[in-house]
Design goal:
single chain; 80 residues; alpha+beta; Glutaredoxin; binds FE2/S2 (inorganic) cluster
């Protein structure tokens, strides 16, 4: 089970967290990954100063632009 969290704090919300959530949900659906990925929204991860929306995969935090969401998911999550 891979734990994936997208920050929905106010700063990340403004940077497009909602679009990332949509893209990830779509990819989980398309790839039938409901039983392999624990997908959550999280409150502020205290990474607001970084560019992009904070997304954690396992213990690693990444910073993502919404337009990179599908590419990120394919590389970091499907590829894991
Ligand atoms: S709002 Fe996302 S890290 Fe602070």
């Amino acid at each position: 089970m891979i734990e994936v969290s997208v920050c929905i704090g106010s700063s990340c919300h403004l940077k497009g967290a909602y679009n990332i959530i949509q893209a990830f949900q779509q990819m989980i659906e398309e790839n039938g990954l409901h039983d392999q990925i624990e997908f959550k929204a999280s409150f502020c991860m205290r990474q607001c100063q970084n560019p992009g929306v904070a997304v954690s995969v396992g213990r690693q935090v990444h910073y993502l632009a919404p337009e990179d969401a599908r590419r990120f998911f394919a590389a970091e999550i499907l590829g894991a």
